[in-house]
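Hi R.,

Here's the chain you asked about this morning:
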Amino acid sequence: MIFIYGDSFADPKGRIAGLEKEYLWYDNLGEETYNWGKSGAGPIYVMGKVYHCIENELIGKDDKLVVILPTP
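And the predicted structure, written out as tokens:
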């Protein structure tokens, strides 16, 4: 599993809202993904989600992370 964290560059809201986009970069990853992206998110939110997943053992030893850190 690949966990994705970040701002609008990672946000899957187009799919959730039914606004199907033709291309989303993470479609090329070739593995199942779990996406925590959120438009407008800052580095504190993003790293908070990363720590949340680590502390609650949601990430396994074979899982991968993609972290897009926005600049404040």
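The two ends are 29 Å apart (CA to CA).

Let me know if you need anything else.
M.
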